[in-house]
Design brief:
98 residues; mainly alpha; elongated
Length: 98
């Protein structure tokens, strides 16, 4: 029995994660990561205004929830890519970016 780890490229496709369910391509993942950064003002605009009225608080919480769902997808994709091959510098860099 060998102590060698199986390379990701040698694992049968049926035994791998189907990351396309999260993002169809690394390019789409990259675009969503950038979009999240661009969309930060949709959350930060509520700073200091939550006590104005219940609607303001509700709007903020709904915006935060939607934003968080997007973050989870981006972070999960990067984490799973890193888990596939932690020696891959692209996977390392993308995981650190998230």
């Amino acid at each position: 029995m060998s102590n060698q780890l199986t390379k990701r490229s040698d694992v049968p496709l049926a035994l791998t994660w189907k990351l396309e369910d999260l993002f169809k391509s690394p390019l789409l993942w990259e675009q969503e990561l950038e979009a999240l950064q661009d969309d930060l003002p949709s959350i930060t605009k509520y700073k200091g205004t939550l006590s104005e009225c219940a609607k303001q608080l509700t709007d903020c919480l709904l915006a935060r929830e939607a934003f968080q769902k997007r973050i989870v997808l981006v972070a999960t994709y990067a984490s799973l890519r890193f888990s596939e091959d932690a020696t891959n510098p692209d996977n390392q860099a993308n995981s650190a970016r998230v």
